[in-house]
Amino acid sequence: MSSFNHSTRRVVVAVACGLGAARAFTLDLTNRRSACLDLFTVEARHQDALIESLVQRAETWKRDLPDAFLHAGIHASTDGVRVFAYSQWTPRLDPHASTPPLHEFFPPEAHLLDVTASRTQDGSAPVVKVGETLTHLAEFRMAPGAQAEMITRTTEALDQAFDVSPGLVSATFHRSLDGTRMFNYGQWTSEEAFAALESQPGFSKDAPYWEGLAKNEFHLYKCVHVIDGDNLE
Question: How far is Cα of residue 213 from the mean position of the Cα atoms in its chain?
Fold first, then answer.
């Protein structure tokens, strides 16, 4: 697996965040709020510029939609070719309807999500923190009509993963509201801890738990910026 350029990411965070920026937020698992995922493919040389644009967009959300915006986390893939923004909103609002596209970058895959299952090592709600853990975003492209069965399998896989993975900090599965995707937002202590799971039954490439239901792609990320809104009830 590729190594993460910590010095580059520190520069981005220092420039884009500013003094006193938020460092963490807690995921809301109730589905009373909207969860939005914007997943970008980008050339490695443009990754930092995209991150800065997404930070500015989230700050605009915070300023212009203070009653709806809860928080957002911007994540950069360790291989340099992906960036994603995960945001939550109250009430169940779709920010894409009122947000102009970032014309200088390829359009993202944009999804509205519900949480289907979540677990952490210590039993608390998952916390998204800048730079502290490795994020694994698993992207499942569903076969037609397979999402309901996939929800059952991923819930079972959650317990299996924690039974054999002391380096797994948290895992939160989401379904897209259009039925075409599922995503796992996982947090790990290290790349080595994540790689160890890939050799376990049900998680290897030979016979994965999603076999027959979905095609899977994943990248590893670091959270490089967090924006916390004022609507924290």
Answer: 21
SS3 193: helix
Q: Please give the structure tokens belonging to residue 142.
A: 């569903």
How far is it, in rounded angstroms, from Cα 54 to Cα 95? 13
Q: Which segments of the chain does DSSP mark as H helices, in order?
A: 6-17, 47-64, 147-164, 191-197
**Two tokens at 131?**
């730079």
Q: Whose structure tokens read 């009430």?
A: 91
Which DSSP symbol is given to 97? G
Helix or strand or coil: residue 6? helix
State the pTM of this model: 0.89
C-alpha to C-alpha distance for 173 and 164, rounded to whole angstroms: 18
Q: Please, which residues have CB within 8 angstroms of residue 124's CB and are 6 or more apart in sequence?
A: none
Measured distance CA(109)–CA(139) in Å, rounded: 11
pLDDT in tens, 190-229: 999 999 999 999 999 889 999 999 999 999 999 999 999 8
Q: Cβ(70)–Cβ(90) under 8 Å? A: yes
Q: What is the biggest distance separating any 2 CA atoms in the chain, rounded to whole angstroms?
A: 48
Helix, strand, or coil (residue 176): strand
d(CA 173, CA 176): 10
User: CA geometry: angle at 87 spanning 86 and 89, to 5°?
Assistant: 155
How far, in Å, are 28, 65, 89, 138, 231 from residue 70 at the CA level? Answer: 9, 9, 5, 23, 6
